[in-house]
Design brief:
Blueprint: H1 3-27, H2 36-48, H3 52-71, H4 73-77, H5 80-93, H6 104-124, H7 131-143, H8 147-165, H9 169-191, E1 196-202, H10 206-217, E2 222-227, E3 234-243, H11 247-257, E4 262-268
Antiparallel strand pairs: 1-3, 1-4, 2-3
GO cellular component, one term: plasma membrane
InterPro entries: DUF2179, N-reg_PII/ATP_PRibTrfase_C, UPF0750_membrane, YitT
Subcellular location: Cell membrane
Length: 285
């Protein structure tokens, strides 16, 4: 096993642990069934008393069988480690962890953050946990419907079922909060927190602006060819990426040179290359 594979294995395991803690600390004890296989398992836990982790594993068995049948061995088996370890971790931690709060709002928020962090790590390091992701992928081979739409339908169905079973639409609404928080945190972990800004600068004095960027800011710049559709005139567009602390300084530089310059400023989630992070370094959280 290579060092890269060991690193991925470590972070997938860390993600599984965080996900299990989010379920055991906040979601399961507060009856928050936030969609997916874990939500179904939470409902069954309160209806028939079955262990959540074991129920998750049992529910995933037919999904794996269908995944292997419809999508091939590779797709089915790459989810095996994440699914088995998550199911085991949920039942292992459950007797030992305290329940920090009985407030469903706090539980939905903090549970969503922990589960989102965990799943974000699992996905970022090329792992999966089976569940509704696998179910949606299988269903897509039959229906051709977008996976995102299928995931939403499955999660919504679980939330509605929880509302009926627990006879509390408030719990269903809290579950929706958890789903949105989890999705946001997963995106944050995978894409990173915005720490840089991309400038697209349209000006008649691009050479003077580029010189300032290169010499005074010490940042690289790229000239893109553009054409004004209204005037039909060819012109250059400068693309450069800077840290947040350099945003105001660059604006001043541009408008000192060309008060009529047009600037488009965009958030950048991750920058790889000279002056920023190199690929493969600092790849963890």
């Amino acid at each position: 096993m290579s060092w890269k594979q060991l690193t991925e294995f470590f972070w997938v395991t860390a993600g599984v642990v965080l996900t299990a803690l989010g379920l055991d600390l906040f979601l399961i004890p507060n009856k928050i069934a936030a969609g997916g296989v874990s939500g179904i398992a939470t409902i069954l836990h309160y209806v028939i008393g079955s262990p959540v982790g074991l129920t998750m594993l049992v529910l995933n068995v037919p999904l794996f069988a269908m995944g292997i049948y419809r999508l091939g061995l590779t797709f089915g088996f790459r989810s095996l480690y994440g699914t088995i370890s998550l199911s085991a971790a949920v039942d292992f931690f459950e007797p030992f962890v305290p329940v920090p709060t009985g407030d469903p709002l706090l539980a939905s928020l903090f549970g969503g953050v922990l589960v989102g962090l965990g799943l974000g790590l699992v996905f970022r390091f090329r792992g999966t946990t089976g569940g509704t992701d696998l179910a949606a992928a299988v269903l897509r081979t039959y229906t051709g419907v977008n996976i995102g739409q299928l995931l939403f339908l499955v999660d919504a169905s679980v939330v509605l079922a929880a509302g009926f079973v627990f006879q509390s639409w408030e719990l269903a609404l809290y579950a929706l909060i958890t789903i949105f928080v989890t999705a946001w945190v997963i995106d944050m972990v995978q894409e990173g927190i915005s720490y840089a800004k991309a400038f697209f600068i349209i000006s008649n004095r691009t050479e003077a602006i580029a010189e300032k960027v290169l010499k005074e800011l010490g940042r690289g710049a790229t000239a893109l060819k553009g054409r004004g559709l209204y005037t039909g005139a060819d012109r250059e567009v400068i693309l450069t990426v800077v840290n947040r602390s350099e945003v105001s300084r660059l604006k001043e530089m541009v408008y000192d040179i060309d008060p009529r310059a047009f600037i488009v400023l965009a958030d950048v989630r991750e920058v790889l290359g000279e002056g920023f992070k190199e690929y493969g370094k600092g790849k963890g959280i």
